[in-house]
Amino acid sequence: MKTAAPGIAAGTGRRGGWAGQVALVFGRGLRRELRARETIPSIVSFAALALVVFHFAFAGDLAALQTPSVSSGLLWVTFAFAGILGFHGAWNPEREGDALKGLLLCPVDRSVILVGKVLETLVFLAVMEAITLGLFLVFYGREDHSWLVRALPVFALATPGFAAVGTLLSALSLHARFRELLLPLLFLPLAVPVLIGGAQSTARLMAGGALSDVSAWLQILAVYDLVFLGLAFLLFEFVVEE
Amino acid sequence: MTLVAGPRTPRPPGRGPGGGLFVAFLALEVVHFVLVLRAPEEKTLGLSQKVFYYHLPAAITCFLSYFFAFCIAGVYLATRRSKFDHGAAACVEVGLLFNALTLASGSIWAKADWGVWWAWYDMRLVTTLIMAFLYLGYLWLRRALPAGERRALVSSAYAIVAFANVPLVYWSLNLFGEKNHPPRIGLPDPRMRYALWAGFAAFFILWPWLARKRAHLLMLAERVEWLRSRRAAEEPALR
Predict the structure, then answer these.
(1) B154 burial level (CB within 10 Å; 0-12, 13-18, 19+)
(2) CA angle, corner A106, sides to A102 and A110, nearest 5?
(3) Which segment, B99-103, B113-117, B120-124, B188-192, is predicted with the most confidence on average?
(4) What residues make up the domain containing A129?
(5) Higher model confidence: residue B101 or residue B193?
(6) Do B150 and A241 touch (CB under 8 A)?
(7) Total Cβ atoms within 10 A of residue A86
(8) How far is B30 from chain A (nearest CA, A)?
(9) Do B160 and A235 make contact, defined as CB atoms within 8 angstroms?
């Protein structure tokens, strides 16, 4: 049984410091994903499937699907639901073979584990969003793709918020009975500000708006990230307590 | 049968809150109802405005209930005393009751005034709906975990996170679209103000009675669970 304890505990001697410890936890998660290739392929496949299903759900009306408000909403709904699968993927391996216990026994601050997991989830979400955006442009893109560059700050601000909330809620529901059903019930209401801000600003940018037009939404996203990262820092220790 | 107290032994149950507050609520509610009937109709909104005398007190009581749940959950995390876990859970449940009342009365008012049962452009109503989902999640979370310290810790953490989200939801909805919630209603006639104050008084008396009653029931349920687990383990202390 491989646990995190030997590698990270040994590493804290060689590469001390908080950042080094976070890098170890983060690296462990990435290495596991590169070996197993479970989470990223599955959430990308889900996102691609969702994009296809939306076409049929809207009766194939491409004109409707290409309007900024609808296509922006379609994108963010896909991100939200694929993201939920990504949260499962980041924490499910910890439930096997007492891996979580091993991780918690490491002589590191709990914030190291939290930030390592948030970064791991962030990578999963970022890869999923990048591939989904590419498929979106293929399936529903119009001629003008310039909105994508202007929308990068929106994605850059929204994704850490998703990752922080998702990581905290996944840890919170780790020992719950119907965890796969519970996580969407907990995550979606909490993600409402990000979904509103992300969808509204993306729709405005798709319609030709400038980044300054969506500055208020970017502020909400930034505040959301700060608030929930801060709450995750404060509460993670209680949530994973054995 | 004598039970030997051990570590984490639940406290013996008290008698719980009496019915005095509930009787006071009933009396005040009769007064409230009479005052609502006697209050004059508001000149622009007409008869439908009278829903306001229930809608606003329910909304404020709901919000206060969630705020208390947030505070009591924080106290639980600091002290680890189970009575605060029961208190937080009770506040959430009672808050959900008033939340439902707010949504129902808001929906009735929307139908009477705007001709629709639901108005997405009314950001306060939508915020209240999101709050309902947030705290339903709290109840689902407690249901998914077995009774004990882990459930208390996790649900307390969630109660704090859920409340922190409420102003962010309100802020984002505020930017979202038209703000069609009825404008601040003036109450020029003193009979209107008496009706509103009576509503607040009735609900502010009902709320603590309900919350304490529910917290007491939760404490009793935990004690029953503890007794069952002791019997199942065939503790020699049970004789």
Answers:
(1) buried
(2) 105
(3) B99-103
(4) 5-239
(5) B101
(6) yes
(7) 29
(8) 37
(9) yes
User: Hey, is the C-beta of B104 within 8 angstroms of any chain A C-beta?
Assistant: no
Q: How far apart are CA B106 and CA B40, in angstroms?
A: 20
Residue B78 forms contact with A (CB below 8 Å): no
The 10s digit of each residue's pLDDT in A182-224 is 999 999 999 999 999 999 999 999 999 999 999 999 999 999 9
Q: Compute the Cα dihedral for A185, A187, B155, A242 and give only its sign.
A: positive
Q: Is residue B168 less than 8 Å (CB to CB) from chain A?
A: yes
Q: What is the pLDDT of residue B1?
A: 41
**Is the CB of residue B3 less than 8 Å away from at least one CB of chain A?**
no
Q: Are A94 and A174 in contact (CB under 8 A)?
A: yes
For chain A, the average pLDDT equals 89
Instruction: Write down the domain spans for chain B.
Output: 20-180+190-233
Q: Count of residues for chain A?
A: 242
In the predicted structure, residue B138 carries a pLDDT above the cut 80: yes
Tokens 């989200």, residue located: B165
**Interface check B194 vs A, CB under 8 A:** no
Q: B46 pairs with which residues across the strands?
A: B42
Number of domains in chain A: 1
d(CA B89, CA B73): 9
Of A205-214, B34-43, B100-109, the one with minimum mean pLDDT is B34-43
Q: Kindly report the nearest CA distance between residue B78 and chain A, in angstroms.
A: 10
Kindly report the nearest CA distance between residue B123 and chain A, in angstroms: 12
C-alpha–C-alpha distance, residues A123 and A40, integer Å = 9
Cβ distance B154 to A200 less than 8 Å, yes or no, reads no
Interface check for B117 against chain A (CB to CB < 8 A): the answer is: no
3-state secondary structure of B42: strand
- The predicted complex's ipTM stands at 0.88
A229: nearest CA partner in chain B: B161
Question: Scanning the structure block, which residue is given the tokens 């106290």?
Answer: B75
Cα gap A174→B24, rounded to integer Å: 44
